[in-house]
Predict the 3D structure of the following.
Amino acid sequence: MGRKPRYTDDLFIDAALQIVSMEGPSGLTMAAVARRAKAPVGSVYHRFPSKDVLVAELWLRTVESFQEGFLKLLKQGNGSGAAMYTPRWVRQHFNEARLLLLHRRDELMTGDWPDKLTDRTYRLAGQLERCLEEFTQGCLGEATDDNLQRMLFALIDVPYAAVKRYLQAGQSPPAIVDELVCETYSAVIGEEK
Amino acid sequence: MGRKPRYTDDLFIDAALQIVSMEGPSGLTMAAVARRAKAPVGSVYHRFPSKDVLVAELWLRTVESFQEGFLKLLKQGNGSGAAMYTPRWVRQHFNEARLLLLHRRDELMTGDWPDKLTDRTYRLAGQLERCLEEFTQGCLGEATDDNLQRMLFALIDVPYAAVKRYLQAGQSPPAIVDELVCETYSAVIGEEK
DNA sequence: GTCAAAATAGAATCGGTATTCTAGTATACA
DNA sequence: TGTATACTAGAATACCGATTCTATTTTGAC
């Protein structure tokens, strides 16, 4: 019993994604989300108790999507593949990439994580840490602090750096990016088998 | 003729710097600047016509300070030194580094550059471009597009990425950062003489 | 058909922040 | 000592965006 829904959660989350990607965090207002979804603000608040929750869901959905593929490669022991996963993912998911790599979470949300969602964030962070540690051990022999730093640098920080410039300019990362990321991985971690 | 000033431009700019570094862009309000400088808001507006102008001055002052040392090394032909300039500068100028590397200009300013200041920004961008081009030519033989990308990556993007994680955590970048930046430079550009 | 539940609608609040306004103050110079 | 001037002061205003409130609409069950 009750009326059929006209809007869905994802409709609003998608609208928010478009807005952040195109106009940046300052353009992301509840009114703008409603407008883009062709809905009144009240309907947005019917789905999400606050802007922070809406944004947190968007952020989590995006990180989970990114991390899933990344960890898969890592578990296969494919280090240079994991390093190049970032530029590849960015080409496939341009708006999501702009959200994730051009802005910090706290730029988009005013408060802390909504309680309901802290579990999901812990799971993500835990997964990443475990996989990274295991891979480092398998790859460099021992997961010392220095080795972990090295791995973070080669697998995450450098690909991010390589890609950022192009995201900012609204362009797809060119092929040279993959080249640079790969060369750096080899230099810092070593050639693969 | 006229009353002696009690406050100075720099007093307010410094206050703004502290605030951004400690509380992030959302903490940077004109009231906060006034409070930290122990002045009333009216006095801030007596010095700066708007928040955007205040922020723009802060931003420019900081970029100029950073870029000066960077270009000096580049003109000396010291590539790996220039690459390691970033972590070093960050250790010396913690608050400035957090301003520059943790936030984008448009996070801090609502509008465009104030007209008065566009010249200074063009000069900065122009200087950097010229130096980079010249250095690339001297170093890699020819300033092709690919070579410039390579140089941007090794000299700017990678050092930035290597340092960011620590700035975010409020820590000084450890020694391993310099090591990684340097190894990457060698791998991507080549050993120096 | 009628009722209750689930949703839509969008106008009305409410709070926070940049900016403006109107007075008051101190200093140099006559 | 008087006065013009550059400055300090902080209260009042204006605006913008999140959130709330009060209908209104649609639908399934009886």
About this structure: Residues 7 and 38 of chain A are 9 Å apart (CA to CA).
